[in-house]
Design brief:
The protein has two helices and ten strands, in the order ααββββββββββ. Strand 8 (181-186) and strand 9 (191-197) form a beta hairpin. Residues 18-27 and 47-79 have low confidence and may be disordered. It has 201 residues and is of the alpha+beta class.
Amino acid sequence: MGRVRKSWIVGVLVVALAGVGFGLYWFQPWKLWQDETVDEALPVAVGSAAPPTGTSETGTSETGTSETGTSETGAPATGTPDAGPLTLAQGDLISHEHDTSGSVKLVRLADGSHVVRLEDLDTSNGPDLRVLLTDAPVKEGTAGWRVFDDGRHISLGKLKGNKGSQNYTVPADLDLTRYSSVSIWCDRFDVSFGAAELARA
């Protein structure tokens, strides 16, 4: 009986330790106390933008259509350089699951390429945070936490830092008239840390 009981206790401990290890890996709670500040200047130009590796525009797969290479006005993109960076839309971040502040700008650069720029971002760190460009409305409270992957959305890449000002390249063939918000999105738990509605400038 003693050996059986000892084996049972060892088995329980192994399972418990494995569970704790998996929980630490999955939730990464230490990140809530680790800040990463990234400050970038607004780029002069980013050249031809392409979708980040491993991302896709899920809204198109749902409708069976593809992006047409139009500009933010819906007209064909010409690639004609402008005088300099131009803010096309902007908005302030509101808090969702975590306290979040700062502003978001959609900027057209001199060569016709686009970036989403986060300015004075201040949010919590967390596992697998990404910057999503979406067509979802921005709602306050828990009703707005999980809506950003429901419709048309595209990941612009992993969040570079939970504090600071950063630029995220927008794919060149995206019809920007179909997108109206940006979310700091935790892809692991499908929840928004914070989001901003983009109002046309």
